[in-house]
Each structure stands twice: as structure tokens, then as C-alpha cells.
Design brief:
Layout (H helix, E strand, L loop, with lengths): L2 H11 L4 H5 L5 H7 L4 H4 L10 H24 L5 H12 L1 H6 L1 H4 L6 H4 L5 H21 L6 H23 L1
Amino acid sequence: MSAFRATDRLLKGARLTKPTWAIIEKPDVWQRSVSQLFDSDILPESLGGKPENIHLAWQGDKILGIHTANSLVDTFGRPIHRGVASEIHSMAVSNKFLKNHFQSLLPYLANAKDIEPKLTDEIAGTMVETAIARIHAQSQANGRRKANEIIDLSNYLVKSAIVEKIWSGMK
């Protein structure tokens, strides 16, 4: 299947309104929740974070993966080609993608100016994934089965990945 046909099918199958294609709303629910975390709660240990953050990042990666898969299903509402779904999923959860959307995902870092020059794809991914694990744990501790904050984040990432996939297919 050509890239253009695949992206055309994405457009027809996604439950996104025309304004969504022009402007994707920032993940406000996620941003409010993540603003409650301290920098040390999400930074890698090498940048002043807590030693357990590396383990939390691994957990956050897995939590993000399942939420992103669910967002893909919710967005399309029907089966889509597995290759296309896998490509969008991989793109949305990649460290590079998380770094490219870093300002939207972690906008309230107190030490942002100090961290920015050191920000690699891996560090950005680690920070976002650690935040996911911490917010998931808070949600569980509060007796909530679903973390609406992570659902908001994954919806944002999926929609952003779809838009980027479509634009890259149109070049």
C-alpha cells in the first residue's frame, strides 16, 4: 500500500474532526496533574532525580504503551491495518516523539533552562515515563481504576502522531 493511500485511509477512518487536524488541544488534564510533581520526582538520577526513577520509567513506558493502544482503538473505532496501527503506536511512544513534544508534556519544570541543554531523546522519554508511573501510582492510591490524566496524554500523543504521519505522507 502506498504511503498516500495509507494516510488517506487514516483520514477517513479516524474519529477526528476537521478542527482537530488544524489544532490539537494540549493535554490539559495531564498538564494539571504533572504540575503537582517535583522535578526530582521525574528527573533521571544523573540530573538530580531520585534513584528509583529509572525503574519507574520502565513501568511508565509499559503503562503508556497500553494506554496508547487503547487510544488508537478509541480513535478509529474499528479495526485498522495492523501495520499502520503499529507504526502510529511506535511513533507516539518513542523517546524522540516525547522529546519533540516535551514542552507540551512537561511544561512546568522548575529547572527547565538547566535541563534543556542536556535533553536527549532518552532523557526526555525517561522523564515523561517516570511522570506517567508516578501519576498512575497516585491514581491507584486514590482508588481510581482509570488514570484520566494518562488517557488524556495518550489521546494527545496518538492524535499528534496521526497528524505527523499524514503530513509526512503528503510530502
